[in-house]
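Colleagues,

Please find the record for the two-part complex below.
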Amino acid sequence: MGLNYELVLWNKHKKRYDKWIALAVLSYLLTFVAITFITNPETSIETLIIRAFGTLALALLHVILVIGPLARLNKRFLPLLYNRRHLGVSMFLAALIHGGFSMFQFHALGDVNPIYSIFTSNLEYNSLVDFPFQILGFFALIIFFLMAATSHDFWLKNLSPKTWKRLHMMVYFAYTLVVLHVFLGAFQQQPAVGSIGMLGLGFMLIATLHLYTGFKERKVDRQKPKEIKDGWEFVCEIDEIPEDRAKIFTLKKERIAVFKYENKLSAIANVCKHQGGPLGEGKVIDGCVTCPWHGYQYLPHNGQSPPPFTEKVATYRLKKVGSKIYVYQEAFPEGTAVEPVTL
Amino acid sequence: MTSNLRKAHKLIWIILFLTIPVAMVFAVLEIKKPAINDGNLVLTEALSGQMVLDNEIFSMSVQKAGETNRLHVIVKRPMKNPSAVIYGVSSEDKKEYFLGVIDKKGMYNFELRDSTRGIRMYDAIKEQDIINIEL
């Protein structure tokens, strides 16, 4: 997290991951070009560019969409989540090159406006197989543009996290448009069993991972309280929480994280104010709860980001009876200081 | 994520899981073979007014126009080919001469040389023949 907005908040991790992205993109493009020259040497440069960047964008989109559920299943994928925005912008640039070259190749040579031509050159809107598939890709590209353009924290802050999140959840709609764009376009013209199978499997992988993690989370949400007395809910034994870590519980349908640090216990809301990351899956670093997604920090006893930052999350009262920990079910307003339970 | 966001994600993926495979299956079932290939060409005599070719995408006929012959092409529905250039094939050493470009639905007319003995429509991007007809 940074106090002032910078174009890119570089750190050594981001630089390292960006180098990996660049290397992977370059390797993919070179491999694609080499295979094309071997198998179909007559292909024109324009067609090669359209195909290479189209398939690259598609591959990157699949990687982007599996990172979320994979990070929920295994913490080793969290560094990918941390760097996902740069991958998203890279995917948009590849899609833009694909779309731009396609528009110039197929729509820019007449006296009709190329964008108008995309919408009017094929008017078979009532047909499935002859549907003007380029329009689907065009709208997906618009969504990717909006996402890439607002990916910076400046927009997250100014649009409000709620609006920003809604905008960025449109990636699922864009993904649907892309799948249909490929099935009604490229696969109709050059149906290859391998390509169709790969995209089908890619979709199944993404959908299965998202649904699996979704239903797994539902189990946590539906956990019934073990013991409630006078508004105090028993959550766990002290030993169940590792040092400088937290355990997550569901309290009145929302999640809270109980942290153990410096021989103390504190409870805060589990949702990071930045992008809704699970604070309880983070660590206490330098005395602050650190979100595993993008490193936003909060003081465990009052849920406030350390000055000069202003983010705040709700806090909860805790009490210890023997080795048992109880949480009071009503949350305090965001940023309210609560005396930690001393062990 | 808040519980509402978690629910929204799950609902979105349930809907996508149920709808996208259906769309995929329908799209694959509708995949057609190339409109025309060399194996199913219609060979006809180039008589004025006679239909040279008629299928679900193209209708082609040669018509008398004064002293010359004219190729009349009707594109009935959008083609799958991103580019289509049409050539006449001359009977003199089978040389091709450029007639024009077919780019969207509609009617096209091209003047044919007297020596024309074939029509070739070529996709320069896919580098393949769309039509190759002997008259």
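The radius of gyration of chain B is 22 Å.

Comments are welcome before we finalize the supplementary table.
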